[in-house]
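Section 5: illustrative case.
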């Protein structure tokens, strides 16, 4: 029986894909964790945890270093909620361009006034705005969301400038040919009427929209942030809103600095809150966990390499999460050889400083072998996937 624990509500479209061999349990008893935005940084991770699946894209709520050194594989669900966010970004650009919200509120205030139609015609000019068609949109980060926003904005008549020095081949293939590929952020800042940011929050991207960046932007620019609030120096941004340098700040992250501040349009982290996105993320997350628990396969991990050994057809399968340093494989082979365990297949993959080894064997695996493998320095986790 495998055991899972959910730190946030996870769509039943995914949970229902756990077979009868799975049971929801308390954190301390579980093998794997499903999470959305719950902050895990202060959490004590029980030793039995083997994997965490983030039903979403951003993993800044998960202590990756701690997990990696405990041999805990962290998955996310790339692209599964990208369409939901894309639609919010388009809505954000429209809401920032025309005072639709102000207009709706005005009508609500009139109640059932009999002359409301006449009044509306008189008052409507205060809610007028501009169209997005023909304007320049700068997109920072051309991943799953950035590409969808770029293509949709192009179809809405915008001229799109895209910046992503690390763009993946897949993303590049999916990008409309009409998009200007920009190699420096200054061009985006100088040229664009709307700028939207779609990069992960890391030490390298924290506060990338700072005083200097804003200084280079066009007067009256609209800034959209559906990625993470800490990407923007919001203290500086609020000043820029007061001065009119930035016309509107559309953000999906409510916090005391921006909530209720003049010039902001703030939503409560709604980007991925659609039935479709929640279902897609949950389905992908559960699939990743099952493939890892049942077969030892890794797909879409942010801290360990992809590894696909399919279904084990031999007597046993052992997996090891370890440091990516010389002499590890020979130590594993020696332990198995000394115990008379024959290796029938072996895969070793690495990602940066960390590696994952999958060994299929043609005989059963004695407990003493597992213990010896665990004793090897810089081995973080040893798992018998099959053949105990
Ligand atoms: N508001 C929401 O509900 C919501 C939903 C999904 C994702 N997000 C946030 O949006 C982020 C992006 O999501 P995604 O699905 O597009 O992720 P993704 O991984 O598909 O794309 C991120 C892109 O950013 C690029 N990048 C990284 N550093 C960069 C830099 N310094 N400059 C320019 N580009 C850089 C990467 O090369 C990649 O192409 C997530 O990390 C998450 O924080 C928010
Ligand atoms: O789970 C959510 O609602 C938000 C997800 C989003 O922030 C993400 O990074 O994918």
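Designed sequence:
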């Amino acid at each position: 029986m495998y055991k899972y624990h959910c730190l946030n509500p996870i769509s039943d479209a995914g949970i229902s894909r756990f077979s009868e061999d799975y049971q929801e349990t308390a954190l301390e008893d579980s093998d794997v964790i499903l999470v959305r935005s719950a902050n895990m940084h202060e959490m004590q991770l029980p030793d039995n945890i083997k994997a965490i699946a983030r039903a979403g894209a951003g993993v800044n709520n998960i202590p990756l270093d701690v997990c990696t050194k405990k041999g805990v594989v962290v998955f996310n669900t790339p692209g599964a909620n990208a369409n939901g966010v894309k639609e919010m970004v388009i809505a954000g650009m429209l809401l920032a361009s025309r005072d639709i919200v102000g207009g709706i509120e005005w009508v609500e205030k009139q109640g059932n006034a009999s002359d409301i139609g006449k009044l509306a015609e008189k008052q409507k000019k205060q809610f007028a705005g501009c169209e997005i068609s023909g304007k320049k949109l700068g997109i920072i980060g051309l991943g799953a969301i950035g590409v969808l926003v770029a293509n949709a904005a192009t179809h809405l008549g915008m001229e799109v400038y895209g910046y992503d020095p690390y763009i993946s081949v897949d993303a590049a293939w999916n990008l409309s040919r009409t998009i200007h590929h920009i190699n420096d952020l200054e061009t985006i800042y100088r040229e664009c009427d709307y700028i939207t940011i779609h990069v992960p929050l890391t030490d390298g991207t924290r506060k990338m929209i700072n005083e200097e960046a804003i200084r280079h932007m066009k007067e009256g620019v609209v800034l959209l942030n559906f990625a993470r609030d800490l990407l923007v120096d919001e203290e500086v941004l609020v000043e820029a809103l007061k001065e009119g340098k930035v016309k509107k700040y559309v953000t999906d992250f409510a916090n005391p600095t921006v909530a209720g501040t003049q010039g902001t349009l703030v939503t409560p982290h709604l980007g991925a809150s659609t039935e479709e996105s929640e279902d897609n993320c949950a389905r992908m997350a559960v699939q990743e966990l099952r493939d890892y628990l049942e077969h030892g396969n890794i797909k879409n991990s942010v801290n360990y390499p992809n590894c696909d050994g399919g279904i084990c057809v031999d007597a046993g399968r052992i997996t090891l999460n370890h440091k990516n340093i010389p002499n590890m494989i020979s130590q594993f082979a020696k332990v198995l050889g000394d115990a008379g365990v024959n290796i029938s297949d072996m895969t070793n993959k690495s990602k940066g400083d960390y590696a994952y080894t999958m060994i299929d064997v043609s005989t059963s695996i004695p407990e003493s072998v597992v213990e010896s493998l665990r004793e090897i320095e810089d081995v973080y986790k040893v798992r018998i996937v099959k053949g105990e």
